[in-house]
Structure formats: C-alpha cells, structure tokens
C-alpha cells in the first residue's frame, strides 16, 4: 500500500515551529518586569520565529486607552498606532473578541484608510489576534506578510496559540512589575523606620554603599541568621553604640 505521508509531516513541522516559538517567548519574557520591553521582545521573537511573517506588531489598551505599542520594525510602527482609530484589523479583533484574517490586502475593502497605508508600506496580508492580559489590560498581536495569500490556516493556529501564551506571559510581567513597585514602597518605609533606618545608615557608612544596597545587606544577614530583620538591625545598632561608648 502506498501511503502519502506529506500532510502529517507538514502538520508536525507546524507543531514543532509553534512549540519552538512558545519556548523562545517564555525564555525571553520570563524575567522581565518592564511591560514595554516585554512587548518589544514578543514582537521581535515572533517575527523571527514564524515562517511567512515579515513583521509583527502589538497594541495594548487599558480601559480603552493606549497602554503600550510595539513593532518588530520601526518603519511599520504606525500600523499598530491607535491614531488610526477603530478602523483597523487590530481594533476589529479587540471589539469582536475574535481573530481577524486579511490574506490579501490588495483586494481588501475593510479599513480603507489603514489598508491603503499598509499597502504603501509593503504589507499584503495580516492576522490580528486578541490577547487577554489581565482584568485591566487587553491587547492584540498582529502578524504581517509581505505577499498576498502567505498567511494560511496554520498561521491562524499559531496566532491563536501565541495569543494565549503571550497573554499569560504579559500578565506575569505586569504582576512582577507591581511586586517590584510594592517592594520599593516597603523599602522606602523601612528606610524611615527607626532602628532599621539607623542600621542601614551604619552599613552605608561602613561600606560606602547606597541605601538600597545597605538594606539588602541587612536582609541577607537576617536570612542567614534566620531571625527577623528588625532584630538584626537592633543588634547592629547596639553593637555600634557600645563601640562608641567604649
């Protein structure tokens, strides 16, 4: 029996490509805390990893207002800019909460102003996939092709997987950023908190280091000794006071 195995091979390659893309995205975004930096990493990795995609862009909104925009290539940044208003594939994807495909912009009648601008820049096809990030921010990732009919059902599947995974990664970036801000606020409070602030001042004087580094030294000591930060601070201040008295 002569079995044609070409279709399963193509399908397998698509799965492997998608898996490689998601793995690379995770590696690139897993430690980031800056949302704009994460968006830029996302679009550049996607552009380089997905065959047939020449450019990639991302638009984020918070409460309907711009919350971030990124483009893999600076020359096409305007395509993802909200100055085009609601008449774009990205905004259609967000409003309809579904993926938008325009495989051939040379014959596309939707979004006339945006489409004319896209064609002028060499774009001939686009997929826009909505991305749920968290309760406050939503977005859309745009995959652009330089020739008509290059974007296939396999690209739509990749875009769907990408949107789901990107939403989780970007939500984690925003959460890490919030935690970083809270930690900074806690640090600022500690630096003005009696004995801890005094201990930080002692370490700054001894080591010639800034307040944040001195606080880290104090935290490391507390962790090593397995005792509360305040107790470490009190011991240090008492020790220095006795040395001065002597």
From TrEMBL:
Q: Which InterPro entries match?
A: ANTAR, GAF, GAF-like_dom_sf, WH-like_DNA-bd_sf
Q: Which SUPFAM superfamilies match?
A: GAF domain-like
Question: Does Metal-binding show up as a keyword for this record?
Answer: no
Its domain of life reads Bacteria
| Chain ranges of the ANTAR domain | 176-237
One GO MF term: RNA binding
> Can you name this protein?
ANTAR domain-containing protein
Species of origin reads: Micromonospora noduli
């Amino acid at each position: 029996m002569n079995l044609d195995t070409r279709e399963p091979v193509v399908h397998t390659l698509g799965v492997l490509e998608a898996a490689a893309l998601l793995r690379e995205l995770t590696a690139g975004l897993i430690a980031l805390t800056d949302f704009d930096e994460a968006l830029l990493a996302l679009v550049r990795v996607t552009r380089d990893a997905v065959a047939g995609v020449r450019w990639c862009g991302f638009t984020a909104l918070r409460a309907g207002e711009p919350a971030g925009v990124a483009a893999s290539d600076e020359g096409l940044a305007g395509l993802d800019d909200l100055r085009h208003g609601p008449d774009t594939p990205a905004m259609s994807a967000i409003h309809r909460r579904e993926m938008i495909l325009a495989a051939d912009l040379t014959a596309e009648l939707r979004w006339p102003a945006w489409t004319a601008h896209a064609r002028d820049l060499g774009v001939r096809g686009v997929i826009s996939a909505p991305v749920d990030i968290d309760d406050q921010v939503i977005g859309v990732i745009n995959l652009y092709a330089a020739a008509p009919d290059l974007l296939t059902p396999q690209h739509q599947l990749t875009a769907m997987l990408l949107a789901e995974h990107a939403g989780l990664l970007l939500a984690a970036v925003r959460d890490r950023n919030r935690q970083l801000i809270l930690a900074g606020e806690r640090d600022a409070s500690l630096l003005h908190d009696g004995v801890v602030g005094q201990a930080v001042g002692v370490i700054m004087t001894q080591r010639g280091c800034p307040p944040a580094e001195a606080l880290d030294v104090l935290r490391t000591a507390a962790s090593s000794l397995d005792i509360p930060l305040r107790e470490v601070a009190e011991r240090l201040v008492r020790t220095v006071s006795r040395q001065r008295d002597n």
